[in-house]
Amino acid sequence: MKKKQIITTCCVAAAILVGVFVWQAYFSATKIAFVNFQTINLGNISKANDNSFVKLREVSTDHLDELTGYDMVFVNGMGLRIVEEQRQQIQRAADKGIPVYTSMATNPANNICNLDSVQMSQIRQYLTNAGKINYRNLLSYVRKEIDGKLISAPVPEAPVEKPTDILYHAGVKNPDDEMEFLNVTDYEKFLRENGLYHEGARKVVITGQMADATGLILALEKAGHNVYPISSFTRFMEFVREIRPDAVINMAHGRMGDDMVEYLKERNIPLFAPLTVNSLVEEWENDPMGMSGGFLSQSVVTPEIDGAIRPFALFAQYKDDEGLQHSFAVPERLETFVNTVNNYLTLKTKPNSEKHIAIVYYKGPGQNALTASGMEVGPSLYNLLLRMKKEGYRVENLPESAKELEKMIQAQGAVFGMYAEGAFDEFMKTGNPELVTKEQYESWVKASLRPGKYAEVVAANGEFPGQYMTTPDGRLGIARLQFGNVVLMPQMAAGSGDNAFQVVHGTNAAPPHTYIASYLWLQHGFKADAMIHFGTHGSLEFTPRKQVALCSDDWPDRLVGALPHLYIYSIGNVGEGMIAKRRSYATLQSYLTPPFLESSVRGIYRDLMEKIKIYNNTTGAKEKQSLAVKALTVKLGIHRELGLDSLPTRPYSEDEVARVENFAEELATEKITGQLYTMGVPYEPERITSSVLAMTTEPIAYSLLSLDKQRGKATADVEKHRSLFTQRYLNPARALVEKLIANPALATDELICRTAGVSPEELAKAREIETSRNAPKGMMAMMMAAAAKNKTGDKTGKTADKMPEAMKKKMKEMGAHMDSSKAMEMAKKMGADPEALKKMEAKMNASKGDKPEADKAKGMSDMMAAMGEKTAQKEYSKEEINFALALTEVERTIRNVGNYQTELTASPEKELASLVNALNGGYTAPSPGGDPIANPNTLPTGRNMYAINAEATPSESAWEKGVALAKQTIETYQRRHNDSIPRKVSYTLWSGEFIETGGATIAQVLYMLGVEPVRDAFGRVSDLKLIPSAELGRPRIDVVVQTSGQLRDIAASRLFLINRAVEMAAAAKDDKYENLVAASVVEAEKTLTEKGVSPKDAREMAAFRVFGGANGMYGTGIQEMVESGDRWEDESEIAATYLNNMGAYYGSEKNWEAFRKYAFEAALTRTDVVVQPRQSNTWGALSLDHVYEFMGGMNLAVRNVTGKDPDAYLSDYRNRNHMRMQEVKEAVGVESRTTILNPAYIKEKMKGGSSSAAEFAETVTNTYGWNVMKPAAIDKELWDNIYNVYVKDEYNLNVKEFFETQSPAALEEMTAIMLESARKGLWKASAEQVAELAKLHTETVNKYRPSCSGFVCDNAKLREYIASKSDAPAAAQYKENISKIREAKVSGDAKGMVMKKEEINRTPEEQKTTLSNIAVGAAVVVVILALVLFVRKRRKTSE
């Protein structure tokens, strides 16, 4: 019986096992994995799946080890980025018999496929033709033919070949139906038959395949538009031309191309590029980055090259019941986006007289001037208003002049520091502000903000109306001037104005009520049709929080809303311009920089140059001549800037004399900016000439030198002695350009050959080489995610990288997975040569008949090979290429002299015309941005700037430049430090430099570490490799990087690349030389553990090297502290604040923005050099505050961490033909001598008005900032010189009269700063200098009232110091005037508020001391009382 039971049990078990096996083999669900599929494609496959026995799953590249648990694996090879370990996981699944199919592999190593040719062909056709039917049959095919299942395994139908060029629409009765139309006529017939066509309505084209557009189409149709969704590669432009749309919406992933740009210009219609977020809605909303890497490049960067606007996150992902993700329009965002499109289209039809336009300007507090980079703002704003009036806008009661407008703005459109309570009080009574009630404000808030956002506002600022710009009855004042339908409004302070300089990590302070109310009033109260931000730059784009692809919890997104937004932006500031575009949805309208001219200081140094010439021409002993040079050098103070000694008896060496000579020659040839630019007003004729000379002379001169060097004609002394270069190359180039300016028709081949000393044949060959090196166009450019250049000639000499060999291989491979029937159309579209097309057609014909699909695919590969022939390039030697580059630079520059002249002349009118056109809903053409001297392609202005693809950086040319500059850095340090090399170099990364140089500073960082970029087939840099130690020829040098918020936002992937490079360098084992990176990591770990960090955390943090602003800040937050001199006493307080504010880690996506205490401090150990980029001729270390903020801040932090003042060098990229490193004190010397101490410069600036006056004040402020951050960079003599020029007027320029006429506030500011420098001991001013300054300051304040900036009105210690240095009557009046500004005239205990404000001005230590004194006093009183009571008690007892 037992035996029978055992047998029965075994039989049952066997049956079960057999059943399980049979079930698994023939009946169970088919599990299919998808790797690297776009959400939209996988979502469409999922929607087509009606078989419950087919289960689809998306498998991320982090979980490829799970693939062995599936019955089929699909891998999308396009852009698949995996490391070797991940690749092996896919291969292991294939080796274990899991069917694997990889399509469109752009990396041959990823092309893993184990299906037979028949299966591959069938699957390829299903996927290529796409659509619900094909996808459904694909899944049936996999289940039945590949997985071999028997039930729920319908016989798959043959692939349905679908047209590739269609208009489409969801079914009206059944939205799941896919309606497709081959022509516009049939599509419009469908619309009419279904009541969807509106006669005379505006037409909107939708294209792009990144998300399900159904919701967008429906919403636009409900808004009354005729909507045309197009899916087409070869006929897109044909469709568009037939439709003649009023707007195009591109759900972008790459460029549309130059043909589209030309069409948009021709039709003057806007191109919108809403974003598809590649993550779930909740994840995206909580992500501080928003979007980065390749997705950012394809979705935001490349569409900008087409002139696309409004990178508004519209689509995001939702999970279905199976856990698969689908991309749909986010409902609340869809409503805003459709309203945005409507608003732009309304601008086209609404009469100008009915349009309400808001113009937001930026100005300093109190009576300080309106400011915008490089612009004279008052007259520019006035010119715009006059133009708008001429164009039919209702601009009423406009004052008679720009000067009168500025006076009105100071009275009715001012902004104030939080400390100026008296000024508030006066303004609310006399400034005629717009008064907003609580009910109005709350209704606007409800319409624009989520409840949680408003709760943040209340938490940060209290209940409405707050404490700023309020009335006694609880209303909020908004400063503004209204001229009919045009409103001018100052941008209010975006911060709370408190003195907590140290940022609290993990917080995002909401703007105050006044800031929010001003923007919401424009939207809901004034009901603006469009908003203009006037000049570079304001603060809206820098409010919290997400970096790009903003959501409804981000302040710029909410405050702009659906308003068309234009931003008048300096062409010279492309880096920050990108933030304005991407975070505040602005269409940029570029404007000119000030004109350029030579410094005109040669005469000042003529005697010195004569002595040097005598020295150079002397043979034999030169001591006497050297001492003569030295005497003049010391007399002129040049030895201070160059770090040379001043001993009268020790002659300078030959190298030292050469340094003096080159410094003096640099001063003589330095380019400076002239009068600030006024919008709408062309440069003076002589300034057009001087600007063209600045743009053209050096490119010709350096290219001719390069040609001579290659031909062995240039002597070594030319490069050693800058004056010889001027004499032999620069002056002849200048003379040539002057002739061409007079007669541009002289620019012939004959002139070019004569100038360069070449034959016509050599010129022809150079052109051939240059053409060969040009980037591929059209589809190839899109595939390489690179911007196709405009058809106009490139004016800079920059050529795109040639197509890598690997790219050609990829093309052939990708061709194997493309439908052959489409090959010819694609080849024509890509511009294949006729011969290549013939070859391709022959191979296709040969493949017809009974040949299997695999052979037909071979024909496709042959097509791609034919395309490769078109792009294949002849190989040239490095010498040939360099010769061609120099010669074509000469040609390009000579031929463009006349063009530059024309474009500079035409730009002012083009700016106004472009702005007017944009206000009419028109298209603004795209352009590169940056310094026009360095990149003349930025002209003409009046265009919408774009950036570069970060994924392709550092570019090949940037790598070469970065390597050369890194070597120069090491050589400079060795020269200054007895041949020792730096252990660690700190770099600052800025967005402007990154865009304009292609990532040259990142290249410096990588080369210092001994790591080089690896480019993929698309030219992207996504990998790195170590440079062998022997090849490097030196130790690997450690780095630490601080990034600006702007760079962080546009190039996060490059920060990850840097940190990976650090880790690679630290781990390098085969080094022939000492590995300073590894040594630095060890020391950092030791430092961290000594500070109490756990060993585990210390190990992780020791390699952290990339840091930036906490909480997504854009700056350091340190300027306000530095310029509030009464809030700190010792520089260590500033250093601690800097380390706190800039201590967020940005080296990895996992730890993005993490603040780990002591990490930044540990990373700064062993730092010997601080490097800052300088790529623009429009600013220098003194004239731009951010240089002392970042470079100076890093310098101060390093000094406080290491106890040693590091060397500080500028990477000078301004001359693309002569990039170099320059010590910061030398750079300060050049800038000060050629600008603020140069009478020619001062005269130019004095042609301007209040903005020009403010520029002088800003430079003096920055001098003070540098003095705090790096005292060695600013000496007493520089302050003495500033005093002599601006207080004593040693050049007799009537500077005091200029300031009093144009801006007394600027004079108040300058004198206050100089007095603060003296008060804090930064400048050892004489008693006489201090007294004279105090007299001038108090006289100006008393005559013109306080300005009232922080230096003038909000520094209690400085005010006491000034009063103490003035005579009694002046001091008393001065104090009274300041008091009127600071103290509100109210009764009761209001004085307590004033007192509180004054107390805030004290340092924390002083406040502690005050509290301690009060406590001690109270204790003393208590003790005395106790003693009295005790004594009395004793007396009573004794009685």
Mean pLDDT: 88
Radius of gyration: 35 Å
How much helix is in the residues?
A: 40-55%
The chain-level structural class is alpha/beta
Low-confidence stretches: 777-819, 828-833, 847-872, 1386-1439
| CA distance, first residue to last residue | 119 Å
Main pleated sheet: 8 strands, mixed
Report strand %.
5-15%
What does this structure look like?
The chain is an alpha/beta fold and 1439 residues long. A hairpin with a 7-residue loop joins strand 34 and strand 35 (1220-1223). The protein is globular.
Outline the secondary-structure elements.
Layout: H1 2-27, E1 30-35, H2 39-48, E2 54-58, E3 72-76, H3 84-95, E4 100-103, H4 117-129, H5 131-146, E5 166-170, E6 178-181, H6 184-193, E7 203-207, H7 214-222, E8 226-231, H8 236-243, E9 247-250, H9 258-267, E10 271-272, E11 275-280, H10 281-286, H11 293-305, E12 313-319, E13 325-329, H12 331-349, E14 357-361, H13 377-390, H14 402-412, H15 421-430, E15 434-436, H16 438-448, H17 451-461, E16 476-478, E17 481-483, E18 486-490, H18 513-525, E19 530-534, H19 555-560, E20 565-570, H20 574-584, E21 587-591, E22 596-598, H21 606-617, H22 623-636, H23 638-642, H24 654-669, E23 671-673, H25 685-710, H26 716-720, H27 722-742, H28 749-756, H29 760-773, H30 778-783, H31 805-815, H32 823-830, H33 834-846, H34 853-871, H35 878-919, E24 926-928, E25 944-946, H36 956-976, E26 984-989, H37 991-997, H38 1000-1009, E27 1011-1015, E28 1021-1026, H39 1029-1032, E29 1038-1043, H40 1045-1050, H41 1052-1067, H42 1076-1090, H43 1095-1101, E30 1106-1108, H44 1119-1122, H45 1131-1141, E31 1144-1145, E32 1154-1155, H46 1159-1164, E33 1169-1174, H47 1185-1202, ...
Helix pairs in contact: 2-5, 4-5, 13-14, 15-57, 16-18, 21-22, 24-48, 25-27, 25-35, 28-35, 29-35, 31-34, 32-34, 33-34, 36-38, 38-41, 41-42, 42-43, 45-47, 47-50, 50-53, 52-53, 53-54, 54-57, 56-57
